[in-house]
Amino acid sequence: MEINPINNIAGINLKSLKKSTEPEPQKSVDKSENLIKELDKMSMINNVNIGKKDYELNLSMEELEKRTHKDYLTTKKMLAVDAPEYLELAEGDKEALKHLVKAAVVLDKVNMQLDNPNNLPFKEYLEAEIAKGNEQAKLTKILFDAQKGVCSLDRESNMIELIKGVSERPGKGVYPQDLEKDEFHAILIKMLKDGKVDDVAKILNQRSVVERVGNELVATDYVDKFKDDFAYMASELEKAAETSTNADFNEFLILQAKALRTADPMLDAYADKKWATLQDTPLEFTITRENYSDELTETVVENPELKALLDENGIIPVAKDFLGGRVGIINKKGTDAILGVKNYLPLMAQNMPFEDDYIQNISPDRESKQTMVDADLVAVTGDVGEFRAGITLAENLPNDDKLSIKELDGGRRNVYHRQIRLITSEDAREKMKKRLAATVNPELHQYYNDEADHWFTVGHENGHSLGPKSGTEGLGKYKSIIEENKADMISLAMLDVLTEAGMYTPEQRKQIIVTYAADNMMTSKPTLSQAHRVRSVMQNYYFIKEGAMEISPEGILNVDIEKMVPTARKMLEEIIQVQMKGDFSKGEKYVLDNFVWTPEMETMAQNIKKVSKTLNGKVESPLANKLLES
User: Fold this and answer.
1) Which DSSP state fits 163?
2) Long-range pairs of 200-203 with CB within 8 A, sequence gap ≥ 24
3) CA nearest 226: which of 46, 41, 42?
4) In a 3-state reduction of DSSP, which class is residue 340?
5) pLDDT score recorded for residue 2
6) Residues 253, 272: contact at Cβ < 8 Å?
7) How far, in Å, CA of 354 to CA of 373, rounded?
8) Rounded CA gap, 613 and 67, in Å?
9) Residues 259/323, Cβ–Cβ less than 8 Å
10) In terms of Cα–Cα distance, which of 474, 431, 588, 621 is closest to 12?
11) Among the residues of 464-505, which ranges form H helices?
12) Whole-number pLDDT of residue 11
């Protein structure tokens, strides 16, 4: 499907949303004006002015033509209009799917504001320029839709800034753009000394937008900040619940709708708890809440005076959530295959390092509160659909900071993204072969299996439910890096245990190890803000240091298969110790000691770039677009 530069956000056509809210406009009215009117009508956001504003485009035509060329801009296609998965649904579920897509699309607008206050005004500016025939704006809009914002890191960790003079801020759009770290800390210290403990707690929680009021900061809960947007979403979820054929799924939708209407974190907790129990439902809908993007909140633990005041007042800072939407159809065959791991979770919990010294979500001696589904995706919106250096393969939610885990003893749910992980084209397979030839010892090629990457991901996502359940907040900005590192090492470290138990064959064990090692190699050294990619560099350096892997001076990877699992176990033990201590300085030292980009890694990176030009990516959602038109 060709991207519509005016009415498309992340491959989803927003133009058709007007059918549910207003009559067809007159044909003479400009399309971009219709979109802005519809978005405004759907949500009159406080303090957001989607109005006329001039910007200067930052990327040259030459750069834009390169980055939007198919060789550099990869595409992930969600379900097609005639997909059997959709056609085989009951009529009630087909109807419900329309409303779920409409609800999810709203999160593009909401999350863009959390990401950067320039996103929506710049989007309008681009649409106006495109209407005038501005080719530079047209190509810029393709990148904007793909990365869902004006600032984004690409595959090579270069910051792509679409507006001249506008750079990404540590506090993204959830804090004032002119707020620096030292001033932030000073304001919080003064507020705490003035007895404004509740106000500071609200500023440092995961669900508020923070603004300046005089010399202080004031936080507004997401539900109040985006009141009309969330009310629209709630209405669509309620409509979906009227026709969906699954009672459990409908109960979740109603709970989620309530949480969208009232600023009460416990309402989200009840919805999360119900969502985490969903196993046998035809449809998938999630509002994802992950906090990897906010780089300002967790800096408070770096200030000794501020940290002491926070501890004294019982305030645990948590980075802000960024919001995504996922709509899909559950793939029963894929889900049955994934569910095989559930029987082994207690065994994995029992084999965790120092497992008697902390509480973990999975108990060795009782049934796991863990559901797992494989989803054929109709739409990924907001945070989930951002194609920034990469795109999400799967998620294990809710995270440990959520009240359903902390207060309600709820479970967790893994959702795996079929359309994002599957390699279906011959062109993609040919590129894979070229990459292996350029980077991996030929003797290991026999063990490379792209499906083994999925098996590894299953282990990774379940790994998030293992290890210390709480107490890692003191690691500050390193918490997410260390957590992602832990999940990877659990997936590897448990291979021998799971092979002996019969989950994997010896051949599959070798395939997972070699595929992990080959896929973990990167095209550039990432920035410390990229938790998922920093942990890859840390692992590569650690495995090379321990003699389990080697990169030749020519940039060719060799793997000592029998050393990989013991090395992963050793690294996992170190990670768990860091998490249990929850000390910022120790976490920082551990990350920086292992975040080493060697000359051999750079040589391999150059080898990869010779055979893989991809810099950016985009999502196309044909079925979602069709549903929005109906």
Assistant:
1) B
2) 200/310, 200/313, 200/315, 201/313, 201/315
3) 46
4) helix
5) 28
6) no
7) 30
8) 10
9) no
10) 621
11) 479-493, 495-501
12) 53
Residue 576 confidence (pLDDT): 98
User: CB atoms < 10 A from the CB of 386, how many?
Assistant: 27
Give me the residues paired with residue 372 across strands.
414
pLDDT in tens, 92-106: 999 999 999 999 999
DSSP per residue, 534-602: HHHHHHHHHHHHTTSEEE-TTS-EEE-HHHHHHHHHHHHHHHHHHHHHT-HHHHHHHHHHH----HHHH
Q: Compute the distance between CA of residue 534 and CA of residue 596 in angstroms, rounded to an integer.
A: 9
Question: What is the end-to-end Cα distance of the chain in Å, rounded?
Answer: 18
Phi/psi for 524 (5° steps) reads -170, 160
Cβ contact 456:512 at 8 Å:
yes
Q: Residue 398: is the preceding peptide bond cis (ω within 30°)?
A: yes
CA max distance for the chain: 70
Phi, psi dihedral angles at 593 (to 5 degrees): -65, -30
Measured CA to CA, the distance from residue 444 to residue 321 in angstroms comes to: 41
Question: Could you say which residues of the chain have pLDDT below 50?
Answer: 1-10, 13-51
pLDDT at residue 176, as a whole number: 98
- Provide the CA 561 distance to its chain's centre, in angstroms: 31
The rounded distance, in Å, linking the Cα atoms of 97 and 428 is 30
pLDDT reported for residue 365: 63
Q: Quick count: other Cβ atoms within 10 Å of Cβ 557?
A: 23
> What is the full DSSP assignment across 382-450?
HHHH--BSB--SEEEES-TTSHHHHTS---EEEEEEHHHH----HHHHHHHHHHHHHHB-GGGGGG--H
pTM over 0.85: yes
Query: What pLDDT is recorded for position 39?
Result: 43
Q: Residue 361 and residue 339: Cα distance in Å, rounded?
A: 17
How confident is the model at residue 366, as a pLDDT?
A: 64
Cβ atoms 105, 14 nearer than 8 A: yes
The whole-angstrom distance between residue 100's C-alpha and the CA centroid of its chain comes to 19
**Kind of pairing between the strands at 12-13 and 8-9:** antiparallel
Residue with tokens 């403990």: 197
Nearest partner of 143 among 132, 133, 151, judged by Cα: 151
Please, is 426 exposed, middle or buried when counting C-beta atoms within 10 Å of its C-beta (0-12, 13-18, 19+)? exposed
- Residue found under tokens 């690691």: 475
CB contact burial 586-599 (16+ within 10 A = b; e otherwise): bbbebbeebbeeee
Q: How far apart are CA 243 and CA 57, in angstroms?
A: 46
Tell the residue number behind the tokens 């793939």, with chain if given: 331
For 168-233, the DSSP string reads --TTTTTS-TT--HHHHHHHHHHHHHTT-HHHHHHHTSTTEEEEEETTEEEEEEHHHHTHHHHHHH
Is the CB of residue 493 less than 8 Å from the CB of residue 568? yes
**Per-residue model confidence (pLDDT) at position 22:** 37
pLDDT of residue 389: 83
**How far apart are alpha carbons 552 and 117 in whole angstroms?**
46
Of 385, 324, 402, which is closest to residue 114 (Cα–Cα)?
Answer: 324
CB under 8 Å to 499, separation ≥6 — which residues?
505, 506, 508, 509
**Main-chain dihedrals φ then ψ at residue 465, nearest 5 degrees:** -90, -5
Strand partners, 287: 325
Consecutive H or E run containing 347? helix 345-350
